[in-house]
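Hi all, a correction to my earlier message: I attached the wrong file for Dihydrolipoamide dehydrogenase. Here's the right sequence:
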Amino acid sequence: MKQILLFLALSTTILFSSCEGDPGPQGPPGDEFLAQVFETTVDFQYDGNVSLTSPIVAFPNTIEVFESDAVLAYQLVGQDNSVNPPADVWEQLPRSQFFNDGTGDVFQYSFNHTFLDIQFVIDGNFDVTTLGSDFTNDQIFRVVIVPAEFASADLTMDDIMSNSEIEVINLEN
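and the right structure:
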């Protein structure tokens, strides 16, 4: 009996390990859709309507940006000198800056964009025009444009709910 089970186990293993289907079509190259990156240095200026803003920075002509692409922004905040050569340290926007002077003052670097350009903004819970030039001048930002496509499905919540089975049993607080 043991030999029959051993024979069946080995033959099943050989049978299933030797099965192979037709190869599928060749896929696109792996590096076809890489994110594009550029850096820009800005000086913030007072805008009575919005607080402090940078000039509008147009995306370089070498980068093709679509309405559906995702735009990320990072601010250079220092260097890591523990490695050789030193490495830049970047923080993603929005980025808040807190003052430890007991006032509770805080401001934030953020950005807005279209598929043509980007603008950086400083907003806070105090008069941000009093910020020193070390916070407003020669600020270096890295902009990353990640290729994306709008989802092709035009589903509503009703469509989603009608295609799934949901049971609510003994719902208690």
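Sorry for the mix-up. The helical segments are 2-17, 133-136, 157-162.
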